Amino acid sequence: MARRKSCILSFRESRCLSNDQSSRPRLDSYDRFIPRRDSLDLDVSYFKLISELSQKELDDDVFQKSSPSQVAKPSSEFSSPCETYERRMTCLTEGASKQRILSFTPVCKKRRHKYNSYDITPPKEKPKRHLPFSPVKVLDLPDLVNDQFTHVLDWGNRGYIVAALKGGLYICKVEDMSTRTVNYREDTIYTAVAWNSKGRLLASGTDSGEIEVWDIKELKNVFSHKHKHPFAFSNEENRPSCRIICLTWNPSTDILSSGCQLGEIQHWDPHNGKQIHKNDPVKLGHPVCVMKYSTSGNYLACGGYEGTLHVNEGRTGTTSFSKTAAHSGALRALAWYPWRASLLATGGNGNKDGLIRLWNVYTGQNVAEVNTTSKIYSLLWGSRKQDLFSSQTTDENNVVLWAYPTFRCVGKLPKCKGRILHMVKSPCGTQLATASSEELLRIWQIEEKDIKGERQLSLTCSPLFQTIR
């Protein structure tokens, strides 16, 4: 019996708590198919059921709800208990008196509008990524080689941009845009440059097949080599060019790799000037258009003039993935995904290609692709995981930003008069530098400035530039 009373008390306490305004659920939690009970006072209704109404109230309610034929019927005729109960329930449920139970309060217009499905407005589309309307800085690049199969622009980790022009190497300090010429030779055409991972050694390649490595801090030549042609020709005019098209450094071992127009890929140790022979040397048989090491340095990807793609292990040189027809045209652009070692983005440069493809180098599968309907000159991953920049030849000659993995166009940089041949990113990832065929270097602010990163770059840059001067 005591247990039953405790249950009844707990039930009453729970009902009392349910009537409290603080314990009631929010209006947002109701469903349109379930009756709304917040407009009912259940305790009052329960009291009306168990209490007895006066005879006058019962007669008034019955006469108001009854038909005209029943109005003259006196209340004394309802003598049986069943008829009395029916009369009472009719009064409490359908009567017009204020004592009626199940009396719903009117719902406000604001609440009714909220649950009307026809009035719900569709969600707004996400705004496009904000990109600058004009470059932060502009610098002239006189005598820039207007050739798509060259790599004459690079941005080192110490904060200096190097541009290879006809006759010399120009190093630019981004803070004040002051420049300095290194190894000026009027009759030399430079076709490739590359900073090492520490930003101290600078490698350059020429149209005649010469490779040089410079120590910028001490301003001395560390290594120099000239390609010897493997074939003998009686006529010098028929000999194909040995020019260096691309250079890249291994970020973990500081090994320099070079690709020439003959299709050979060679590896060099810049400290002693000796060539490193790998187990499986790559010979494409056609010009090497682009080469890049992965972020960890474990893989080396190279693209050929006929659309071939080779991925070799960085230390042994053995081929781990090869695709002979990755693109229908020349494979000019490569970009390793920084946050996953197995993803590689490639861009085709053919007239009928214009594809950006994403490869899984572990399995050799084409993960995703997008047709840009234009030639791709360079690809670059941004500081965010969803940003992929591509410089391409369209009617506007601009840089397009793609969202990964949907490959949806998020934004574009303003158009240029000439085609954008080269594109590099700053070490902190907040700026983007482009070099176009109109002989202009533009620097774009694609992210918010990192004050801490800029201070570190200025500390590392100042001693180096003072030495060059």
Outline:
This protein is an alpha+beta fold and 469 residues long. It has helices at 2-19, 42-50, 55-65, 68-71, 81-94, 109-114, 451-468, and strands at residues 137-140, 153-155, 160-165, 168-173, 178-182, 190-195, 201-206, 210-215, 220-226, 244-249, 256-260, 265-269, 274-276, 288-293, 299-304, 309-313, 319-323, 331-336, 343-348, 355-360, 365-371, 375-381, 387-393, 399-403, 408-412, 420-425, 431-436, 440-445.
**In DSSP terms, counting alpha (H) and pi (I) runs of 4 or more, how many helices?**
7
Q: What's the number of extended β-strand segments? A: 28
* Helicity, as a percent range: 10-25%
Report the mean per-residue pLDDT as an integer: 75
Measured distance between first and last alpha carbons: 101 Å
Tell me the major beta sheet. 4 strands, antiparallel
SS strand fraction: 25-35%
Give Rg in angstroms.
40 Å
Q: Provide the structure class.
A: alpha+beta
Strands of the widest sheet, in order across it, are 1-28-27-26
Low-confidence stretches: 3-28, 61-76, 107-119, 231-238, 453-469
Specify the overall morphology.
elongated
Describe the structure.
The chain is an alpha+beta fold and 469 residues long. 17% of the residues lie in helices and 33% in strands. The chain contains 7 helices and 28 strands. The strands form 7 sheets. A 4-stranded antiparallel beta sheet has the order 1-28-27-26, with no helix packed on it. A 4-stranded antiparallel beta sheet has the order 2-3-4-5, with helices on one face. A hairpin with a 4-residue loop joins strand 4 (168-173) and strand 5. Helix 3 crosses helix 5 (81-94). It starts with a helix and ends with a helix. The relative contact order is 0.09. Residues 3-28, 61-76, 107-119, 231-238 and 453-469 have low confidence and may be disordered.
